[in-house]
Amino acid sequence: KMVSEPYYVSKTIKVNELIQEMQKLQKHFAIVVDDYGGTSGIVTMEDALEEIVGEIYDEYDDVQDKGLVKISDNYYSISPEMDLEEFFDTLELGDIPDTQFSTVGGFVYGLCDGMPYDGKVVNYQVLLEIGEDQKREYVLEFTIKKVEKRRIKAIELKITESTIEE
User: Which pLDDT score, from 0 to 100, does residue 79 have?
Assistant: First the structure.
């Protein structure tokens, strides 16, 4: 038997239920049915997983720049997908903060008081010791430039720097 029976799901099914059913039935595709029994579209296991964990890049995806682009002195455009450790290393900001997030987008999301939205600004302070009696303070001002479906899609960063004498 080369072709298996199609798997139909209601457009109102919850994502976690869809994933469980697809795993149980060993299906990677489902036909989404509307309120009248007509076809509304298809959904894949990857689509369902991406709703939970974010974009999954594979060999068929056109991966955009996942890094940092300098716009001008102390101004950067950052991909929310950029690895948080790579971000701190690239800008020489010391150790990454103790956080549950592994991407810059997740980190900025965690800094938000509430849901992120276009234009929201959040700050993060970094203190680095540069001598016996001196510390350098960096204020990272993240501006969320674009949000889609509660997910941060574009971030700009302004860094202000000052030296603190003790």
Answer: 92
Residues 120/133, Cβ–Cβ less than 8 Å: no
The SS3 of residue 72 is strand
Class of domain 8-53: alpha beta
How much is the average pLDDT of 15-36? 94
Tens of pLDDT along 97-131? 888 898 999 999 999 988 999 999 999 999 888 77
User: Which overall architecture, per CATH, does domain 68-165 show?
Assistant: 2-Layer Sandwich (3.30)
The answer to whether 9 and 32 have CB atoms below 8 angstroms apart is yes
Domain ranges, ordered by start, for the chain? 8-53, 68-165
Q: Which residues 6+ apart lie within 8 Å of 47 measured at CB?
A: none
Same fold, 8-53 and 68-165: no
Structure confidence at residue 4 (pLDDT): 83
User: In 2-83, which ranges are continuous DSSP H helix?
Assistant: 15-25, 45-53
Other C-beta atoms closer than 10 Å to the C-beta of 22 total: 20
* Dihedral of alpha carbons 103, 108, 113, 118, sign: negative
Is residue 144 within 8 Å of 152, Cβ to Cβ?
yes
